[in-house]
Amino acid sequence: MSTPSSPTAFSAAVAAVRAGRPLDEAVDELLSRTTREERLWLLDGDLPFWQGMADMMTNGYNLTPYPMGRVERLGIPGLLFSDGPRGVVMGQSTAFPVSMARGATWDVELEERVGTAIGLELRAQGANFFGGVCVNLPRHPSWGRAQETYGEDPILLGEFGAALTRGVQRNAMAVVKHYALNSMENARFKVDVTADDAALHEVYLAHFRRIVEEGVSGVMTAYNSVNGEWAGQNEHLMEGVLRGMWGFEGVTVSDFIWGLRDAAASLRAGLDVEEPFRQQRAEHLSADLEAGRASWDDVDRAARRILRTQVRHYAALTEPEPPLDVVFNPGHRALAREVAARGMVLLKNEPVGDAPLLPLRRDALTSLAVIGRLADVANTGDNGSSDVRAPEVITALQGLTEALPGARITHVADDDPAAAAAAAGQADVAVVVAGYTAADEGEWIGGDVLTDPGLLALFPPPGDDPAGQSFAAFLAEPGAVDSINGGSAGGDRASLRLRPVDADVIRAVAAANPRTVVVIVTAGAVITEEWRDAVPAVLVSWYSGSEGGRALADVLLGDVDAAGRLPYSIPAAEEHLPSFDRDATAITYDKWFGQRLLDRDGHAPAFPLGFGLSYTSFALADLTVDAPEGDSLTGVVTVTNTGSRAGRHVVQLYGRPTGIDAAADDFPTRVLLGFATVDLPAGASARVTVPASARPLRRWTPTGFVPASPTAVIEAASYAGDPDAAVSTVTL
């Protein structure tokens, strides 16, 4: 949506800011033009609750923008919401690989390009408010919505969230979510997460701070409770940390429908907008104001922030209105393919004969067996609020068939080890596609949510509203609740391993054909100990979006280097992870998870953070590190492609504070500081600059951050714990 062309109070405010008038002056003038009723209208969605619910549950989620706070009399466009993050949920948009796959590229410039494409598609379809910058830290890989975030480390989360924000905000307001400590799916409406200040500021809030500093327009609160108070009405998180410590000037919004429990309390605590419909605030806030449970100063504070965010956005718009045909255009499909290929992570690539199995040689492939129930399924991720309804999805089978027009390709979809082995035995190469679907992981709204008296009490009474009666009738239909998740269970994963039958198929295929590649479709870590020894090659392909099948062929055939790197660690056993109860009502989050926990406890990972093989090889040498300037430091290292073909490498900068004992000092022995990517021809070298942050080398105290140690060893590495890292030392 562009600024209205006819003169309105809102367009006058935008024009004044563009002409140099201070933003706050223009906003105050605009606010003074609103009536009290209009100011209340700004504070929630515009659609009547039951109408919105009935439409969402029967016709589909977010097919068009959800409007919040549009005031036509003054030309205020409102916040026109579209969800994400794997693309625009509205219409038939480009499905990019899920965020975790994009995090595996370790390429923030590429992510910014994705953000630009998403912003264009969103704006072309009438929205201006993108709720898709998801950066929650997956404390445990079972988290069902791990696919919506970028990795296990705050630096990765912060830099990728900032990059997506930069790209989107060329055309729309970006919203970061879910603030905070939201990394359990099944229990998200009831769990109270306890975390001390050190864990909060060093780990679970650090990436939100980075994205706020980037200038994100909105922050969406979480469903869960934090230290005894629901996140949507948590004054310490919103007013104390977000605004008081970090200086956030944008708008705060609730998560949908169940994101707050008390209209007045949420307003007093600093929540500006209840999303997405007219619900608790429309029902209760007027009476709350009369009773003194909230004040008109609270209303004006929120209204001013809501208007300020919109005026600032429209005043800064320089991009022309995109045409509708930008949606799912060839350029965006090509970008989706590029991202999918760049993010695929090669975990294993052993020789078969005299050379590594991958990349496959087209000229030597006359037949291919493609095995697995997922090989010809349009499997782009879960069926929840992040689902993108792309017009076309290229499956693994389609992509390989297209890339190998002269080859005989046999597909075995059944869970039948004998049939799979028979097909593999008659082929030059076998590719087994195994992993997960929306039935195994993803957003979850179970039947107990829509029958929970406490949650149902947050709904306004349906009365004789036909839409309310329609919704009640919908819930009474057999199987209706199950259909909300697209007929799939989703939620937190029950297992970190492939199905037993998948392991049986893999071993049977490998026994029949030593030239076997296993392709894993997943978002989070998969433990592979029971079958990995049987196969020479393992590739993580993720939920890879509209063009995933073509991207898979690009990587397997070597048209693109295997360049992805793990955005998390993979343990060798479940016992090496933090405890996880997906039905918990209370849990404590400390600093220990992922690679940090493995390091502390002395458990060797199956694959460490940042690991990934290439089709060539690289060496790192001659690291120099500047002394930190404020929160920033910079490393420069020589990267040499020591192999026989061109390739792409990810240089990772880690810091080891000196004299730290992880258990005794409650501080990690190694932390990620920054990263950079480089493309090099065979035999070439380059000096690569790696921008980094000194913040992970600091610990939180009651008076703020202080260095964890006087000095730190800095490593330019290919993965966490790389014995061949180039090292230097800095004073903190």
How would you describe this protein?
The protein is α/β, with parallel strands linked by helices and 732 residues long. It contains 23 helices and 27 strands. Helix 7 (154-168) links the parallel strand 3 (129-134) and strand 4. It is globular and about 80 Å long. 58% of the residues are buried.
Query: Order of strands in the sheet with the most strands?
Result: 1-2-3-4-6-9
Computed structural class:
alpha/beta
Helix proportion:
25-40%
The portion of residues forming beta strands comes to 15-25%
Summarize the biggest pleated sheet.
Answer: 6 strands, mixed
Give the low-confidence spans. none
Distance between the termini: 48 Å
**Rg estimate, integer Å:** 26 Å
What is the number of beta strands? Answer: 27
Shape: globular
Q: Mean pLDDT score, rounded?
A: 95
Helices, by number, come to: 23
Pfam families: Fn3-like, Glyco_hydro_3, Glyco_hydro_3_C
Keywords: Hydrolase
Protein name: Glycoside hydrolase family 3 C-terminal domain-containing protein
Family: Belongs to the glycosyl hydrolase 3 family.
